[in-house]
């Protein structure tokens, strides 16, 4: 049973378009959000279908699942299929073009760590397929709203704009769907040469300031921001920050002109997955808020990384992409200062090779006090949250951040920079907030080594001097609502406004899920036990519209 703030007068059909979705493909928070938001929206009457590229892991997950497919003879010069299937709780469309997506490893990078040189056409094709679906090419499916996530889906709104309403009307739709462009990280524009305009299927008029052009190139994200009906980003503070020159990444002028249709809505996390009482990779499960039971996990985590098992050590963690944006390059300059007074630090993540080498050097320099795992690990990410005393998140900018939300739920006290969603979700443990019993973490600014060191020392001092106050921080964090519940309502109201759907207030009522629709608490274990198989391209035969069982 899920409390509901409102009920829609009719269901809203939402097509979500993204390049990542946990557990199939994930490089960061985008994959988690695309996976967890649909169920939250479904509780309020929004029916979500997600369009993904046919990466090997996605097709592997579909292999034994009944599916329907639509043959697409020409998607920007490629023959492809659009599969429609249900995988677990996920209602999916999958764009299957082997020449573009049948590649192992990272969805964006080749084995050399560089972008695939055809990323432009790879994600233009995804947006082109999204526009086709939005125009009604799949019989019986006419979405009201298309939510396009980041630059990879940014051209969707442009295709719908340039082709107008007539294509939609020809497929029996009363109007074209509204497009909501969601910014998860404005730093990545999807910028490509204007010589690719015709290859991307864009008209000449797209190469203008009132189109897809951005400083002499084609920007997929700029196209989405310019042509979408509404823009959302993932926290209120980030929505303000990106309208300024420092974090607007050159698009601040456009965003200011569209400020009347720009919303900042915080992300949530899937609390059935992020649940320390049921998390299958946490060695000693515990109820959220039970700060005593976490000690066994701390000792086991210290042992796992070859650190002395010492309950009194101040154990700090970093789980992050190892990039300059995340501020990880600040650590080497102050590591000696951070490790004073029986402090230990564990880093888990992957990213820039220069930062990798710096972390390895720190491990050699501070054995028994500093340890790192250089590589992505979902399991270590969960175990760290259940084990460390505090989590460092020194991001130079952070649109929302999910790591601090997970930390709050698991009792790892966040030490974070005062930017974006970090500022929106953490209450600083200053003297007044601690005395009132409302603090949840430690905020610092500006984002520089000395400020980070000072905030960490504040945290360590409270941990050492007043353990009861420290445990209150942990309990406050565990009591914070980090779920999608309230945030999903904001999306529902926006989608209702754009689609012309009435919201009927339901005060004191609940929406009751039908039997069999609840998520399993053991979902993460199921995902982690699945092997990442490489699928062969499904056969292409028979009529254009096929059913596979």
UniProtKB/TrEMBL annotation:
<comment type="similarity">
    <text>Belongs to the glycosyltransferase 1 family. Bacterial/plant glycogen synthase subfamily.</text>
</comment>
<dbReference type="Pfam" id="PF08323">
    <property type="entry name" value="Glyco_transf_5"/>
</dbReference>
<dbReference type="InterPro" id="IPR011835">
    <property type="entry name" value="GS/SS"/>
</dbReference>
<dbReference type="GO" id="GO:0009011">
    <property type="term" value="F:alpha-1,4-glucan glucosyltransferase (ADP-glucose donor) activity"/>
</dbReference>
<keyword id="KW-0320">Glycogen biosynthesis</keyword>
<comment type="function">
    <text>Synthesizes alpha-1,4-glucan chains using ADP-glucose.</text>
</comment>
<dbReference type="Pfam" id="PF00534">
    <property type="entry name" value="Glycos_transf_1"/>
</dbReference>
<keyword id="KW-0808">Transferase</keyword>
<dbReference type="InterPro" id="IPR013534">
    <property type="entry name" value="Starch_synth_cat_dom"/>
</dbReference>
<protein>
    <recommendedName>
        <fullName>Glycogen synthase</fullName>
        <ecNumber>2.4.1.21</ecNumber>
    </recommendedName>
</protein>
<feature type="domain" description="Glycosyl transferase family 1">
    <location>
        <begin position="310"/>
        <end position="458"/>
    </location>
</feature>
<feature type="binding site">
    <location>
        <position position="26"/>
    </location>
    <ligand>
        <name>ADP-alpha-D-glucose</name>
    </ligand>
</feature>
<dbReference type="InterPro" id="IPR001296">
    <property type="entry name" value="Glyco_trans_1"/>
</dbReference>
<comment type="pathway">
    <text>Glycan biosynthesis; glycogen biosynthesis.</text>
</comment>
<keyword id="KW-0328">Glycosyltransferase</keyword>
<feature type="domain" description="Starch synthase catalytic">
    <location>
        <begin position="14"/>
        <end position="256"/>
    </location>
</feature>
């Amino acid at each position: 049973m899920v409390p509901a703030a409102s009920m829609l007068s009719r269901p809203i059909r939402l097509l979500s378009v993204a390049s990542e979705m946990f557990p199939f493909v994930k490089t960061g928070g985008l994959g988690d959000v695309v996976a967890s938001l649909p169920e939250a929206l479904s509780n309020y009457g929004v029916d979500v279908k997600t369009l993904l590229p046919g990466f090997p892991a996605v097709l592997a997950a579909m292999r034994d699942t009944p599916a329907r497919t639509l043959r697409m003879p020409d998607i920007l010069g490629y023959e492809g299929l659009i599969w429609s299937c249900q995988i677990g709780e996920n209602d999916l469309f999958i764009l299957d073009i082997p020449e573009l997506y049948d590649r192992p490893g990272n969805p964006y990078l080749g084995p050399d760590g560089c972008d695939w040189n055809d990323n432009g056409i790879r994600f233009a094709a995804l947006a082109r397929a999204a526009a086709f679906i939005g125009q009604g090419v799949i019989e019986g499916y006419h979405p009201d709203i298309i939510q396009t996530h980041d630059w990879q889906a940014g051209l969707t709104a442009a295709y719908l704009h340039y082709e107008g309403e007539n294509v939609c009307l020809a497929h029996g739709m009363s109007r074209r769907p509204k497009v909501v462009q969601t910014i998860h990280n404005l730093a990545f524009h999807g910028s490509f040469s204007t010589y690719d305009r015709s290859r991307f299927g864009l008209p000449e008029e797209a190469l203008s300031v009132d189109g897809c052009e951005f400083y002499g190139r084609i920007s997929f994200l700029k196209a989405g921001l310019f042509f979408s009906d509404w823009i959302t980003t993932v926290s209120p503070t980030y929505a303000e920050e990106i309208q300024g020159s420092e974090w607007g990444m050159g698009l601040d002028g456009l965003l200011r002109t569209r400020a009347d249709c720009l919303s900042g809505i915080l992300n949530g996390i899937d609390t059935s997955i992020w649940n320390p009482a049921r998390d299958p990779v946490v060695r000693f499960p515990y109820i959220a808020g039970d700060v005593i039971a976490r000690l066994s996990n701390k000792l086991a985590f210290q042992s796992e990384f070859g650190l002395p098992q010492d309950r009194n050590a101040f154990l700090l963690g970093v789980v992050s992409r190892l990039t300059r944006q995340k501020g990880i390059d600040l650590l080497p300059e102050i590591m000696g200062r951070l490790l004073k007074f029986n402090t230990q630090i564990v880093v888990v993540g992957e990213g820039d090779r220069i930062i990798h080498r710096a972390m390895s050097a720190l491990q050699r320099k501070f054995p028994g006090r500093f340890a790192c795992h250089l590589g992505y690990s979902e399991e270590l990410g969960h175990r760290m949250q259940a084990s460390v005393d505090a989590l460092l998140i020194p991001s130079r900018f952070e649109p929302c951040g999910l790591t601090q939300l997970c930390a709050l739920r698991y009792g790892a006290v966040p030490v974070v920079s005062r930017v974006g969603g970090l500022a929106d979700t953490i209450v600083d443990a200053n003297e007044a907030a601690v005395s009132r019993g409302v603090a949840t973490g430690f905020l610092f600014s500006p984002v520089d080594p000395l400020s980070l060191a000072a905030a960490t020392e504040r945290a360590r001092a409270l941990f050492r001097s007043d353990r009861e106050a420290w445990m209150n921080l942990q309990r406050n964090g565990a009591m914070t609502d980090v779920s999608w519940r309230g945030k999903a309502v904001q999306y529902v109201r926006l989608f209702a406004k754009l689609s012309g759907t009435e919201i009927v207030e339901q005060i004191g009522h609940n929406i009751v899920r039908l039997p069999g629709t609840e998520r399993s608490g053991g979902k993460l274990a199921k995902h982690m036990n699945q092997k990442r198989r490489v699928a062969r391209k499904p056969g292409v035969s028979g009529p254009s519209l096929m059913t596979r069982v």
